[in-house]
Design a protein that fits this description.
alpha/beta; seven-stranded mixed beta sheet; 9 helices; globular
Length: about 230
């Protein structure tokens, strides 16, 4: 039943998103306005319809300075959960295949999502440089360094941490638990509990003398509780 309700809800949101595209091309919504729309419709709205309750720990660890948020990636709902919890605009990394879905492509690009072709090294380098610029210009960036969804903790990809090295921004480790059970468990929507934990920020002063592999190991241990 929840799967049907969510499908109907998404059809309505998709229609609204299509209708807003020509309006946006005329008046140009700000990134904050776009994010607010996503926050309430794709974030809080979907969580409400899906019956997902979110418990947040360590929200006071979110800094006033913009940051690089590093999280495990348990389920397809992870970005929506983060969007629900955090009201500030964030840029994400997403796989290129998602760009086939419209108007998701249009609004995600307006939001600042950077698409990566995992088979194209030049695409990855370009994306890293774009996200470094986003961080330096005051934007928060969210990365799932496991590279794919998994219920079991996977090794982080070290290249992600070039973002920290080049931007000198704080790293906020984050742990998501429970999103796998919302959908991936049986490929239908299930109500449930999701717990998000934000850990203490790692400042530039704490990692400036480390190489990207050492930074990766440090953050990975925190997120995965090793």
């Amino acid at each position: 039943m929840r799967t049907v309700l969510l499908s109907l809800y998404l059809i309505c949101i998709d229609l609204i998103a299509w209708l807003l595209i020509p309006i946006d091309k005329i008046i140009k919504f700000t990134p904050d306005q776009v994010y607010t729309f996503i926050h309430w419709t794709m974030g809080k709205g979907i969580m409400k319809v899906s019956g997902v309750n979110i418990t947040v720990n360590g929200l006071d660890n979110i800094t006033n300075e913009n940051y690089l948020l590093i999280s495990n990636h348990e389920g397809i709902f992870d970005p929506l959960i983060i969007t629900t919890v955090l009201k500030d605009t964030h840029a994400y990394i997403a796989k290129k295949e998602i760009t086939k879905l419209k108007p998701l492509k249009y609004w995600s690009l307006r939001l600042g999502v950077k698409y990566i072709d995992r088979k194209d090294v030049r695409s990855q380098v370009k994306m890293i440089n774009q996200l470094v610029d986003e961080l330096k210009n005051g934007r928060n960036v969210v990365v799932f360094p496991e590279g794919t969804r998994s219920i079991d903790d996977m090794e982080f990809k070290a290249g992600t941490f070039k973002l920290a090295q080049k931007s000198h921004k704080p790293i906020i480790p984050m742990r998501i638990k429970g999103t796998h059970n919302i959908y991936e468990k049986n490929m239908r929507i299930n109500k449930g509990e999701v717990v998000i934990t934000f850990f203490k920020p790692i400042t530039y002063e704490e990692y400036k003398d480390l190489n990207i592999h050492e930074i990766k190991d440090k953050v990975e241990k925190i997120v995965q509780g090793k």
